[in-house]
User: What shape does this take?
Amino acid sequence: MFAAKHAAIAEKVSSVHAGIQKALGPLSSLRLIEFNIEKEHLQ
Assistant: This one.
């Protein structure tokens, strides 16, 4: 149950982050890479 909840939260964060990425453009690509590394680490 916790894993499912965590996945839903992660998905929501990802979509929000994708929106921010689109808004900021190339400046945020490095941050996106960092975010993906953090996400992998949490799993």
Q: What stands out?
A: The chain has a mean pLDDT of 80. The radius of gyration is 11 Å.
